[in-house]
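Today's session is about reading a structure prediction critically. Students often jump straight to the picture, but the first step is always the sequence itself: look for stretches that repeat, for charged clusters, for runs of hydrophobic residues. Only then move on to the predicted structure, which in these notes is written as discrete structure tokens rather than atom positions. Here is the chain we will use throughout the hour.
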Amino acid sequence: MRRSIGFVMVLALLASWFAPALALLCAAAVAVVLLERARGHASASWAGFGVLWIGLPSVALLWLAADPGTGRATVLWLFALVWATDSAAYFVGRGVGGPRIAPSWSPRKTWSGALGGLAAAGVVGLLTAQVLGISALSPVVWISLLVSIASQLGDLGESLAKRRFGVKDASGLIPGHGGFLDRLDGMLAALAAVAVLALVAGMSPVAWG
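Below is the predicted structure for this chain, in token form.
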């Protein structure tokens, strides 16, 4: 199943080069969430939450990607940032352990994992600045940290929502991994955060340098 997730990651990276492919990928993601809701016999409120939670960030992704100057760089930075945060949080949390962040919401998430994810995001920010040829003190570095926090809060938020609706996973569509929405919770929150920042500043965070 890790191969399937890896395939989706590669597909997302390839789609970032072609706007129509990215739009199709977003549409497919919304369709899969609808399928999860149907298979899981979820309540109307839970189904509506899932569609809204993935639909709005998908629109934000397409909007960010459409920028002719920074669209592709923004998408690649965002993908790298969230994937690095998720991976580091998992491995550091599993290896170091320690106090849980919110045991009643998500019993596996630890403060050590959260800090590991934050550190990985900082590295991605520094690498992004280097690739773009801008200063290591550029806002993109500290914005990477903020977006990493948003990503981890999104993960916790969906865990809380699942507890609220009395389900362990968004669905069982991906055996051993829960549902499609379970794999995208951090990305969706990060997308929302970046879109808000771009709206406020009038440009993508990667252009702030």
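Discussion point for the tutorial: Residues 2-207 form one domain.
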